[in-house]
Amino acid sequence: MTFVSTCDLLDTFKDDARVVLPGLRDFGAVTRFSGPVVTVKCFEDNSRVKEMLATPGEGRVLVVDGGGSLRCALMGDKIAGSAVKNGWAGVVIWGCVRDVAELATLPLGIRAAAATPRPSVRRDQGLSGLSIALPGAAVEPGDVLFADEDGIVLLTEEQAAGLK
Hints:
By secondary structure, this protein is of the alpha/beta class. The protein has five helices and twelve strands. The protein has helices spanning about 5-15, 45-55, 75-85, 100-105, 155-160; strands spanning about 20, 25, 35-40, 60-65, 75, 90-95, 110-115, 125-130, 130-135, 135-140, 145-150, 150-155. Strands 1, 2, 3, 4, 5, 6, 7, 8, 11 and 12 form a ten-stranded mixed beta sheet that branches. Strands 9-10 form a two-stranded antiparallel ribbon. The longest helix is centred in the middle third of the chain and has 9 residues, at about 75-85.
């Protein structure tokens, strides 16, 4: 997929593009990434995140609605390393990450609300393939996410198919 800057996307699609509100920070070594979206909804349990990132990513982006919890991390260096090994383009988490120094060395786009040293507890909870929300934007499985230094923009598959 050809990367297009988020500013250019907004110039083209205007209000038909969805923009995630500012506030998610960069944690990975890759600051510009894009790809089709896979969704996970979980709260303080990273079972589905670990499970999903252990599958072939094929250039996709995992978007996680962690409810914005700042109490524990939904991804650390081991799970992020699995994402790299399996070909994921990026991970966007409405929640926390940990192992920040290690995450910064990985060739993976990583955006999250914050960092905390506390891990999540795995209780085999959470769902994948749902419509979810990030601050300011609804996210559907199959949407195409674009992230760069200016922010995060989501397009439908149809909109993204028309990009050159």
